[in-house]
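Changelog-adjacent note: as of this version, every example in the card shows the full chain rather than a window. The one below runs 174 residues end to end.
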Amino acid sequence: MNFDLNHSIDLLSRTPETLRTLLAGLPDDFVRSDEGDNTWSPYEVLGHLIHGEKTDWVPRAQIILSDRAVKTFEPYDRFAQQQADQSRSIEVLLDEFASLRAQNLKTLKSMNIEETQLDETGIHPALGTATLRELLATWTTHDLGHIAQIARVMAKQYQSEVGPWKAYLGILKA
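Full-length structure tokens:
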């Protein structure tokens, strides 16, 4: 499938409500459980998504579309959420994420991006040259990957409780 900006905006606009449906009202021990060492809980994934809304996707799109001579992106701290206030409830994080995402999509739409602009480039500090199309497709895919991750982490909370059906539950094998 070829990238379609309108489809991406539609998908990106759904992530906050999808996460709210999955996570709001659940007990802390459920949303803060992870898969073991060096893995993230749904709470941490949401913190990561919030940090991305603040520092990654739209700021990088703005760099690509700018008149700057050098369009190098700032490095992104994938673990910044671990430095954030961990006492906030999941509902507070869900509200913050929804607000940031709505503002970012409003900003993205206001850019009035034309098809030819999707081929403009910026420079990722580790990956090199990237187009606006690639950045926006990655933002969409990144959301979907983290939704799947959250579902997997949540499913694994019942891994020892499903008995023989584990053989049929591929999500528990991931």
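Structural remarks: The chain has one domain: 5-172.
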